[in-house]
Structure formats: structure tokens, C-alpha cells
Write a structure and sequence with these properties.
The structure holds two protein chains of two kinds. By secondary structure, chain A is α+β, with helices and mostly antiparallel strands. Chain A has three domains: 73 residues, ATP-grasp fold, A domain (Dna Ligase, domain 1, 2-Layer Sandwich); 130 residues, D-amino Acid Aminotransferase, Chain A, domain 1, CATH 3.30.470; 144 residues, Succinyl-CoA synthetase domains (Rossmann fold, 3-Layer(aba) Sandwich), CATH 3.40.50. Chain A is 34% helix and 26% strand. Chain B is an alpha/beta fold. Chain B folds into two domains: 112 residues, Rossmann fold (3-Layer(aba) Sandwich); 149 residues, 3-Layer(aba) Sandwich (Rossmann fold), CATH 3.40.50.261. Chain B has a seven-stranded mixed β-sheet, sandwiched between helices. The radius of gyration of chain B is 18 Å and the shape is globular. The chains are: A alpha+beta, B alpha/beta. At the A-B interface, α8 of A face α4 and α5 of B.
Chain lengths: 378, 289
């Protein structure tokens, strides 16, 4: 789960990573309630959106007094940045930057080790640095069971040619970021820039953090963060029903069992000239109720124009899925046609159940390709 | 012959007392798999349907000579369970559990590689089956058929899909292996492909990958340099949007990395026959045999 900048900065505080003083604002009417007087001008007003390029889009402004702050805040709140509406602002003390560094921690899936990237060329797109000045990007692989040791880190700071005068501060900050990455169960911790500011302080000015939600059981703040991140209504309904659902741009509603098969169904729909409205995995061993719940979720999505149910029986039994479809649709007017493809365990019985309980809007397809074609067609 | 499991496989089930563990362990036993023990701390001395329960894997091994562990332990404890089985000397650990934190997985993998001879299959995988011989995991044996095609996949249901297609047109399978959908799997495509290449009773391979990571690209290099047997492949997620985890923790396009297109291109370049629809895997393989 990707965090907003302000959420990442809450984690910075928890892990003792220095960052500018700030307040969060979600509504101008609340301006009186937040203690903005603790901040010293000039301030930076930053739109909280999960999309790159907010600066260029006008989502970041430097202000010198209260009047400018109110003007900028009212302009940015509600602004649409590449389809993301700004609902919150982070207002923080501006820093006089002398140097900008880049640092990130991720898991390198190929080497199966942690990867630290460090560069003295922060503040810009790191992929560009990697392409144009590869020598300015230091890569350090860290064996997960050993961790980041002192010698390796000191050498990396040296290799990346970071400030020699501040190497102790930088060392401590990087170690804290590493702790946030490991103990904090993040898939990604990226600071760009990590800035040396006038007077010789080092501050993490931005935050890009992705949490590993599989570790939510040992971090109570994960759920709190999740509740603050807006998601489409259909995703909310699906989550409440315990279904694995992702909203997409197309018009064919997809229900399938197993992540791989559902992904594959999206692809086959596209091959037939359509596009999927969602990813919805009812998982292994799904029962009748799960299928009904999945259909309910799709009924709440106005973009859905037809539905494709694609099941390959393994542990999941096709007869139970068919019963679920019949239970959920019997005697009801359906807003769209449902194309059903059943294969594998008890597929014969499943198809039989659908034939014995015909519904004018339900079509049983022979195979995956036919099913996709019918679902895409008029 | 088959890979990883054979007639000498003796399985200890970690988490046998749980609902899923019990259901699948009994199904595996019914199929002919030698399920010799279960573990559950504090329940040593009890038994389930004739399978003795021990407090630890070490005890289970000393009493029953188990050599393979099957893990159904919840995510919170699964990492420790895998290490316990590795330390106790299991040659193969199959971890079905989904939802293990990535840091736990990475540490477990690193410790196994550095300290033990154990092979880890999974986590978040359906296990493996050698049709007619042994089933260690949750794969539906009903759709399999004994034969000479090896199947390896990151996805459970797409494995079933492929196996079903093969069986329908009378192509049997030597071993079907699910390597799992997590970011840090134990055995990789390359590990399984090299076992299939060496296996006398495997004459062809079906490989099913998906978006995320670069394991299919790495496998392509291996196919090109070291495989003599024909490979038919399918990659799921051609239309998946970047930055979204598509069900599996490992199925995510990060920036420009891990796209289906890159994987398909690499496999084609390596000489694999890549199909655009998983239901075409069987037919495509038939045309090569």
C-alpha cells in the first residue's frame, strides 16, 4: 500500500528521521484549529496526492506570510492533479537547500537481497541519473539475515561522495531509514531529496513509502493509514465482503478464481477487443455466498456493461459456483448479461445446474475464448 | 521418476491440526502420499485419523523418518516453521501459507541458502504433484494424468487450467510444480527447469509465469543456454496496470520492470513457444511433440 507523503513523515518521526516541522490541513475552515503558529515562515504548501509531477502541476507553493498561505491553500485544495483530487495539504517549514541526495531501500527480487541505492545527485528522477550518470548511483546489496553493517554503510557514504563534514548525521539517518524499511515492514522507502540545508542540518524532505500489508498484524498504524487513503466505492464494498478486487477502466466485469486465472481473463478479454472493468478473485474453495457477494459488488459499478465468470475447478467445485450463480440471480432482473465458463472439478454438474435453472441473461460458454468473445460482444 | 518427490517421500505436516492442514493432508494420504506425522506445539502425543502429532519437527523426524515438510501454519508463524523444518533436516519444505511478510520470507530464504541443504517450495504455492504417485500440497489430483510433461507455474489456478487442458488431449504429466506467487520464492523457475531437463521421465515442459520480478527473463536465459526439451509458455498480466498488486503479492509491475511483454519477448527469443491464451497450452505442446 502506497502512503501519502504526510503518512510517510509520521513514520519518519517514529523512527527518528529528521524532517521539517509541519502541519496537515484538509479544509480551510480548520485553519484556526491547527497550530500553524508553531511554524516559521517561509512555508511550503504541498498537495498530498499519490502521483508524480505535482510540483509542475502547481501543487507545491512557497509562501512568505499568512495571506499567501491562505491563498495558496485555497487554490490547491480541491485541485485536480492528473485525476487525483487534492484533499489534504502538508504545510511545512521551507528549507534552504545546499545539497540534495537520493536514498532508497527496496527488495531486489532477482538477488533476493535488500538493495540500497545512494546518490549525491538527488532532487531529480533517479532513473535519469542511473541512465546518464551511472557512476553517481551507488548500489549496495544487503543480505537480509545479516543486515546493514557499519563498515558497508560507511563505505557506501564514501563511494556516493556525500558530505564528509556531515557523515555522522548522514550515517545515523540512513541507519534509521534502514530500520524503517526492515523493522517497519516497508516494500519501499525512498527519500528524494535527503537534503543538506543551510546551517548544516540534514533533513528528509520528501517521502515515498510502500507498506507490506502482509505485515499489518504487527503494526497497528497500518490499518489507520489504510483508512485514510480514499478508494473507489466498489473497492470499499468488495473489501467489506472480503473479496480481492481492483477497479479498472473497462466495461466487462470479471469474476474468477485465483489471481493468475483472473489476470489471464483480463488479457483474453482484451484479445477479443474488450477491456475489463475490474479484477475480482473469489479465491480457492469459493462457496455459493462468495459468488453472490462478487455479483453484488459488480452491481454497484456503473461502468460494468456485461459480466464474465471464469472458473477452473480445482479445490473450488463448479457445482457450488453454479448454485451461487442461481441463488444470486433467480427471479431477478439482471442489469447485464452474465457469461459463465466452468471447467475442471464438477464442471459437468455445474453446467447442468445452470441449464436446469435457465435465466434469459445468463449464457454458458464452451471455453474461455468464447466466453470472452460473448462478454465483449453487443 | 519424478522431480522433488518420489516413493521415498515421507511427509510431516506442520499445522496438521488446523482445518486446511487436516483437509489437504488427508486428501494427500488418500492419494497415496506417505503422510507420516503432524506437528503442533503442545499437542504432541495426540493423533489425527491415525497420523501421530509431535511437538516439534525434530521429534517427528526421529520417530518417523520424515524427510519432507508441508507447511500450513498461519503467516505470522510460517517463517519460523520453515526454518524449524530446515534445521531439523528436511530435504524439501513445501509452504502453502499465503500472506507471509516479505521481510520474513527474505530472511528465511537467506538463512536456508547459507545454512541448510533444504529446498524450499513456495511460500504461497499449491505444492506439487506427481500424478499416480504422490501429491504434496493442495493441487486437485482429479484433473491430472500420469505422463511425461513437466508443468511449472507461479499461479495455482493457471496450473490447474494447464493440467486440465493437457489431460483433456491425453498428454500426461510427470510432475506439476507450483513455485508460488510471492516476491521471494524458494525454488525458482530455473531450479525446476533444470530438474525437468535432467529428469529421464520428462520430455517437455509447460511453464506459466506472470507479471512482476524478472524470474521469467532469467529462466529464458537458462532455456536458451541449457535446455534441450521443448518449452511451451504462457505469461499472465499483459493488460495489468502498473503499480497494482494483482492478487499475488509478487504480481506487480514496478515502474517499467516486470511487464508481461518483456517476459514474453525474452521467452520467445529463447526459443520457447509462447501462447496468448492459457487454454492453448495443450494444443501448442501437442504440435511440438
Amino acid at each position: 500500500m502506497d502512503l501519502f507523503e504526510y503518512q510517510g513523515k509520521k513514520l519518519y518521526k517514529k523512527y527518528n528521521i529528521p524532517t521539517p516541522k509541519s502541519v496537515l490541513l484538509d479544509n480551510l475552515e480548520n485553519l484556526e484549529k491547527i497550530d500553524i503558529t508553531q511554524l516559521n515562515y517561509p512555508l511550503v504548501i504541498k498537495a498530498q496526492v499519490q502521483v508524480g509531477g505535482r510540483g509542475k502541476a502547481g501543487g507545491i507553493r512557497l509562501v512568505n506570510n499568512k495571506e499567501e498561505m491562505i491563498d495558496a491553500s485555497s487554490e490547491i485544495l480541491g485541485m485536480d492533479i492528473k485525476g487525483h483530487v487534492v484533499e489534504k495539504l502538508l504545510i511545512e517549514e521551507a528549507s534552504e537547500i545546499e545539497d540534495e541526495y537520493y536514498i532508497s531501500f527496496t527488495l531486489d527480487r532477482s538477488k533476493k537481497q535488500y538493495l540500497m541505492l545512494l546518490s549525491s545527485q538527488g532532487g531529480m528522477d533517479i532513473e535519469e541519473v542511473a541512465k546518464n550518470n551511472p557512476d553517481d548511483l551507488v548500489r549496495v546489496y544487503i543480505p537480509p539475515s545479516k543486515g546493514l553493517d557499519k563498515k558497508t554503510l560507511n563505505q557506501a557514504i564514501l563511494d556516493a561522495r556525500l558530505s564528509n563534514n556531515l557523515k555522522e548525521e548522514i550515517y545515523e539517518i540512513i541507519l534509521s531509514l534502514y530500520n524503517l524499511f526492515t523493522i517497519g515492514d516497508c516494500d519501499l522507502v525512498e527519500v528524494n531529496p535527503l537534503a543538506v540545508i543551510k546551517g548544516g542540518k540534514v533533513l528528509a524532505l520528501d517521502s515515498k513509502i510502500t507498506l507490506d500489508m502482509n505485515a499489518a498484524f504487527r503494526h497497528e498504524e497500518f490499518d489507520k493509514f489504510e483508512k485514510e487513503i480514499p478508494i473507489p466505492k466498489t473497492e470499499q464494498i468488495a473489501k467489506e465482503k472480503g473479496l480481492n478486487f481492483i477497479k479498472l477502466d473497462g466495461s466487462v466485469g470479471i469474476i474468477g478464481n485465483g489471481a493468475g486465472l483472473v489476470m489471464s481473463t483480463l488479457d483474453v478479454v482484451s484479445l477479443e477487443g474488450g477491456s475489463a472493468a475490474n479484477f475480482l478473485d473469489i479465491g480457492g474453495g469459493a462457496k455459493a455466498e462468495t459468488v453472490s457477494a462478487a455479483l453484488e459488488v459488480l452491481a454497484n459499478d456503473q461502468d460494468v456493461k456485461s459480466v464474465l465468470i471464469n472458473i477452473i475447478g480445482g479445490i473450488t467445485r463448479c457445482d457450488l459456483v453454479a448454485n451461487g450463480i442461481v441463488d444470486a440471480t433467480k427471479g431477478k432482473n439482471l442489469p447485464w448479461k452474465i457469461v459463465v465458463r466452468l471447467d475442471g472439478t464438477n464442471a459437468q454438474e455445474g453446467r447442468g445446474i445452470l441449464q436446469e435453472n435457465p435465466h434469459e441473461n445468463i449464457i454458458v460458454a464452451e471455453n474461455m475464448k468464447d466466453a470472452a468473445r460473448i462478454a465483449v460482444g453487443e | 521418476m519424478s522431480i522433488l518427490i518420489d516413493k521415498d517421500t515421507k511427509v510431516v505436516v506442520q499445522g496438521l491440526t488446523g482445518r486446511e492442514g487436516q483437509f489437504h493432508a488427508l486428501r494427500n494420504r488418500e492419494y497415496g502420499t506417505n503422510i507420516v506425522a503432524g506437528t503442533r506445539p503442545g499437542k504432541g502425543g495426540e493423533e489425527i485419523e491415525g497420523i501421530p502429532i509431535f511437538d516439534s519437527v525434530r521429534e517427528a523426524i526421529s520417530e518417523t523418518e520424515a524427510n519432507t515438510a508441508l507447511v500450513f501454519v498461519p503467516p505470522k508463524f510460517a517463517g519460523d516453521a520453515i526454518l524449524e523444518a530446515s534445521e531439523a533436516g528436511c530435504r524439501l519444505v513445501v509452504c502453502i501459507t499465503e500472506g507471509i511478510p516479505a521481510k520474513d520470507e527474505a530472511k528465511v530464504y537467506d538463512e536456508i541458502v547459507n545454512n541448510y541443504k533444504t529446498k524450499l517450495l513456495g511460500p504461497n504455492c499449491p505444492g506439487l504433484i506427481s500424478p499416480g504417485k504422490s501429491n504434496v500440497g493442495i493441487m486437485p489430483h482429479e484433473i491430472t494424468k500420469s505422463g511425461k510433461t513437466g508443468v511449472v507455474s507461479r499461479s495455482g489456478t493457471l496450473t490447474y487450467q494447464a493440467v486440465h487442458e493437457l489431460t483433456q488431449i491425453d498428454i500426461g504429466q510427470s510432475t506439476c510444480v507450483g513455485i508460488g506467487g510471492d516476491p521471494v520464492p524458494g525454488l525458482s523457475f530455473i531450479d525446476i527447469l533444470s530438474l525437468f531437463e535432467e529428469d529421464e521421465d520428462t520430455d517437455s515442459v509447460v511453464m506459466i509465469g506472470e507479471i512482476g520480478g524478472t524470474s521469467e527473463e532469467e529462466a529464458s536465459e537458462f532455456i536458451s543456454s541449457s535446455m534441450s526439451k521443448p518449452v511451451v509458455a504462457y505469461i499472465a498480466g499483459l493488460t495489468a496496470p502498473p503499480g497494482k498488486k494483482m492478487g499475488h503479492a509478487g504480481a506487480i509491475i514496478s515502474g517499467t520492470k516486470g511487464t508481461a511483454k518483456a517476459k514474453i519477448d525474452a521467452l520467445r527469443k529463447a526459443g520457447a513457444n509462447v501462447v496468448s491464451d492459457p487454454t492453448e497450452l495443450g494444443i501448442a505442446l501437442r504440435s511440438l511433440l
